Amino acid sequence: MRKFINSRWFIISILCLGTLIVYGSLSLKSKQNRDNKATNRVATEIQATTEDIENHQIYGTFKSEASWATDPTEPKNLLEITENNAILKVKVKSIGEALFLESTEDFNDPNPYTPIEVIVKNSLYGEKLDKINTIYLKGGHIKIYDLMKKLDQDTIEKMGIDTLSEEDQKTMYVSYETDYDYSLKPNEEYVLIVAKNPNNIYTVVANGYGIFKEEKPSTNLKAATPKIQIKNVLTDKNLTDSKGKELSIKK
After folding, report:
1. Rounded to 10 degrees, what is the CA torsion of 127, 227, 233, 189?
2. How far apart are CA 19 and CA 87, in angstroms?
3. How far is CA 53 from the centre of its chain?
4. Is 86 helix (H, G, I), strand (E, B) or coil?
């Protein structure tokens, strides 16, 4: 079930229109160079792009509520309820603006997805997906101009977005959110549970429930090759395979 978040049905004040959100289009133009000067230049570009993203104007928010047939906080369940899945260690290169995925006979989702450009560092489970470079995360900020292309006229009028100027429609956003979201960050490494949709696009399963981080091993470990635990970013639960066996990475 989806509901539009506003206790007074889209009475948006000027203050709301000025809300700044860190989410949106990150365009990293980094190329691996050998000298420190090039590395510093790339870091500067990332910072400048991030500041642009923070200036997104949010007109309103849609919040999706999910009804789960199984407990999504258990990693093994996310693997059991999906097909063509994998667990990947990735490094995030950039995060783009949300968009609507192409509908097919077998896939039609009214929610936008945020494209995440990644470098696959390792395949820990399931399909070997070393060559993919884009993974999609459900939700994000969608331009009102693009949203209006997906809505019927009655819905557009109820939301009040038909009264916005063309300039506002192209510069303001509607945010699609859930209670289990997690914001990925460029240049950070994550372990993701992903699955292939019928339209051959790989998405993160259950948003934040499918996102994990490596936990640094204790410095006092005596093992010759200590294992690095992988914990969920929302629940702090250890990552497991579909049978409940804990997965870890050797240091």
Report:
1. -60
2. 35
3. 15
4. strand
Count how many residues are written for the chain. Answer: 251
* Cα 226 to Cα 132: distance, rounded to the nearest angstrom: 30
DSSP-derived secondary structure for 23-84? -S---------SSHHHHHHHHHHHHHHHHHHTTEEEEEEEEE----SS-TTSHHHHHHS-SS
Question: Which token pair is 49?
Answer: 């792009």
Could you give the dihedral angle defined by the CA atoms of residues 23, 110, 93 and 198, in that order, rounded to the nearest 10 degrees? 170
* Residues pairing with 195 in the sheet: 85, 203
CA distances (Å), 184 to each of 24, 101, 242, in order? Answer: 11, 20, 24
Residue with tokens 């995030």: 92
Q: Is the pTM of this model over 0.85?
A: no
Residue 114: φ, ψ to 5°:
-100, 120
Integer angstrom CA distances of residue 15 from 51, 58, 136: 19, 10, 31
Tokens of 16: 């709301």
Per-residue pLDDT for the chain (251 aa), expressed as one digit of tens each?
444 444 323 323 322 333 323 223 222 233 333 344 433 443 444 343 344 545 679 999 999 888 899 999 999 999 999 999 999 999 999 999 999 999 888 888 999 999 999 999 999 999 889 889 999 999 999 999 999 999 999 999 999 999 999 999 999 999 999 999 999 999 999 999 999 988 889 999 999 999 999 997 666 556 566 788 999 999 999 999 999 999 988 76
How many angstroms separate the CA atoms of 27 and 96, rounded? Answer: 7
